[in-house]
Amino acid sequence: MPDAREILLVTLVLAYSSGIASAASDFAPKVKDVCTASATAGKGLILNPRKFVALLVEKKAGLSAIDLDAEGNGLTYKQQAYALLSPEEFCKTSTCAKGAVDKLGDANVKLIEFVSTHSLPTKAGVNSFDTSRVAVTTSGLGGFLEGKTEVECYSAPTTKEPAAPGPDGTPGSAPELPQHLSIRQTVEDLHYSQDDNKFKSLKQASLSLSDDRIAGKSSFSINGAVGYTVGRASFDEDGHFIGQFTPFLTYEQQYVETKTKTTRVQNLGAGFVGDLTFPIGGLYQNISAFPKIVRSFSSEAEFLSGNIVYTPMYGISGVDNVYYLAPGSLSFQISPSIKAAYSRILHAGTDDTLREQGSYFWIGPQISLTLFGEGVLDGFNYNISYSTFLVPNGKIKEISYFETSLSYDFGASKLMSIQAKYEKGRNLDTLEKVDQFTVGLGVKY
């Protein structure tokens, strides 16, 4: 029977294979055909959604106005965009020609592939688009087609322009770096802003408790990280090397009390994350590194660690962006990465299962799959994640951590959630054992 690492490797290969296949599209509009000059001072070319939809629906799908309205009443742009987003619903209320629903469905897939492929530039320079602000959801794509979310176009490598002079002729000030405060479950997720395509699949910080009087068991859990990110800042004139910096604090506590024993994990950590996005062979990658010091109040141990996480960013549907399994009902996103960590035990703990004082290194893959409800299921999310690491010089030769959760997001911005979560394995900072089911609130900001 294959072990966990073999299963994880096969899953990664299948995910990438299916993603690469879905990312390939024969719809490749040219900048000169779909982009116009921006009316905003200081901006270059902006994708014109009307030109884009006309090219996709009329030229690529081969559907004229009479094919979508046989009565000849004429179509507004809003109706044409609605037909592209919801083919079946549109044709229920309009006299569509035979085969129009299937052609609109193919065009809808090409729309999603276009947004997904260009969420990160796969090639620098000529004929490129930046759809990173467009969420691959019904509302996100609708905002794009309505012109509420701009897509920038690049017909040549971008260069930095000097700041405009002030009224008195003195040099103007350079634009401020973007900054944001974030609250998430893990340090690795802190640098993503709320308008990033990956934001939807990030894990929430959580607070939960339970009191089972029949079983005589009670539990309490807190798990979260808070950080303040400065950047994205470009380190070169063409904007291919982009970095961010995030100082952070982490806190986690798992408390379980039964009739016979009480177990408790309580850790406070601090550090900073530096991450860099850069191209290799025309495809983008992201590497984040973060030193972190952790104090375990339950085992009285202190740990200093250095962590490196590699995340591929190839613009693959279902990996870098949400992919629709059943448009209007269900979508998913897979998040693979590889993590290496070096840990120094500053003070040995009291738990016999922990490592002896010294230095240790471990490396291994991490993968997470999130399913998103759409339409009538909007707000429901299911996540399952697994990490496994080899520890060549530790008392514990292999570390694993499993987590699964079901949540419902609520509120206007869907930043709060009610969730049920189960986690099992070892804490990835202190290696203390965790085996707990909790129900509570989650927050992702």
Radius of gyration: 25 Å
Mean pLDDT: 78
Any idea of the CATH topology of the largest domain? Outer membrane phospholipase (ompla), Chain C
* Percentage of residues in helical conformation: 10-25%
Shape: elongated
Q: What low-confidence regions span 5 or more consecutive residues with pLDDT below 50?
A: 1-25, 122-126, 157-174
Please indicate the count of domains. Answer: 2
Question: Could you describe the 3D structure shown?
Answer:
With 445 residues, the chain is an alpha+beta fold. It has helices at 4-23, 31-34, 49-60, 65-68, 77-85, 87-93, 100-117, 138-145; strands at residues 35-37, 45-47, 128-130, 152-154, 179-184, 205-212, 217-234, 242-257, 262-280, 283-296, 301-313, 323-326, 330-347, 359-373, 380-390, 398-410, 416-426, 433-443. The strands form 2 sheets. Strands 6-7-8-9-10-11-13-14-15-16-17-18 form a 12-stranded antiparallel beta barrel. Strands 1-2-4-3 form a 4-stranded antiparallel sheet. Helix 5 crosses helix 6 (87-93). The radius of gyration is 25 Å and the shape is elongated.
What secondary-structure arrangement, pairings included, does this model have?
Elements: H1 4-23, H2 31-34, E1 35-37, E2 45-47, H3 49-60, H4 65-68, H5 77-85, H6 87-93, H7 100-117, E3 128-130, H8 138-145, E4 152-154, E5 179-184, E6 205-212, E7 217-234, E8 242-257, E9 262-280, E10 283-296, E11 301-313, E12 323-326, E13 330-347, E14 359-373, E15 380-390, E16 398-410, E17 416-426, E18 433-443
Antiparallel strand pairs: 1-2, 2-4, 3-4, 5-7, 6-7, 6-18, 7-8, 8-9, 9-10, 10-11, 11-13, 12-13, 13-14, 14-15, 15-16, 16-17, 17-18
Helix pairs in contact: 5-6
